[in-house]
Amino acid sequence: MAKKVSRRLQELQKKVEDRPYEPVEALNLLKETATAKFPESAEAHIRLGIDPKYTDQQLRTTVALPKGTGQVIRVAVIARGEKVAEAAAAGADISGSEELIEDIQKGMMDFDVLVATPDMMPQVAKLGRQLGPRGLMPSPKGGTVTFDVASAISEFKAGKLEFRADRTGIVHVLFGKAGFSAEDLLINLKALQDTIDRNRPSGAKGRYWRSVYVSATMGPAIQVDVSALRDLKVSDAA
Questions:
Q1: 210 three-class SS
Q2: pTM for the complete prediction?
Q3: CA 196 to chain CA mean position, Å
């Protein structure tokens, strides 16, 4: 059954032309089409020329958004001994050992990022069923398996995000709030593009960037000119 498009979205879609926009033009349009009754996020949907079923074409990494996410990030830490107290002192919203693992097994998911120390990973591995579908399983690539829990907590709370390409090779990631200035959104989007280029999988062949679309949470998709985004210098975005 076809999904019904609301009248509000139909009206907003009329404002978007079927063409790639210059990055700052696209972001101004994103802001203009963020008309929902709640503070919408800014989303990027990036199609890459990769096939993640091959291990050398997978993309999973982190980006530090210079202007932050605009969200309050709840960080949980699974550690043992003095590392639990260290995590709490560093600002973790939840910290614990085996008892926290049991709480998560029972369905407690009151966090956005889960950090674990390497010595706890054998026990954390059994949480795959709970954490996997939500993309919350700690991983060294994602910066969420570390003994330096204090740094990890501060980085994620300051705007560090983990993201990955889905099985069709598309990256879906938030890069701020629609209420940010277009300039701040551009700085965050540029940081995301740089990170994706820097972490290009070794098996990626041919054209790496296929398309980039941005939107507000409840807004229409707006195509961004990929070449213009990649050619942009950070000083131009600042």
A1: strand
A2: 0.80
A3: 12
CATH architecture of 18-69+160-237: 2-Layer Sandwich (3.30)
Q: Are 67 and 224 in contact (CB under 8 A)?
A: no
Residue 177 identity? K
CB crowding 124-141: b at 16 or more within 10 Å, else e: beebeebbeeeebbbbee
Using CA atoms, how far apart are residues 42 and 27, in angstroms rounded to an integer? 9
Pick the CATH number of 75-158 from 3.30.420.10, 3.90.220.20, 3.40.50.790, 3.40.47.10: 3.40.50.790
Q: Position of tokens 């210098």?
A: 233
Q: Cβ neighbours of residue 129 under 8 Å, at least 6 residues apart? A: none
Distance CA 148, CA 158 (A): 16
Which residue has better confidence, 11 or 90?
90
Distance CA 147, CA 139 (A): 13
Chain segment 59-118, per-residue pLDDT in tens = 999 999 999 999 889 999 999 999 999 999 999 999 999 999 999 999 999 999 999 999
- What confidence tier does 29 reach under pLDDT thresholds 50, 70, 90? very high
Q: What is the pLDDT of residue 97?
A: 95
Reduced to 3 states, what is the DSSP secondary structure of residue 16? coil
Closest C-alpha among 149, 141, 134 to residue 78: 149
Q: State the Cα–Cα distance between residues 183 and 35, nearest whole angstrom.
A: 20
**Are the CB atoms for 120 and 97 separated by under 8 Å?**
yes
**198: Cα separation from own chain's centroid:** 16
What is the location of CATH 3.40.50.790 in the chain? 75-158
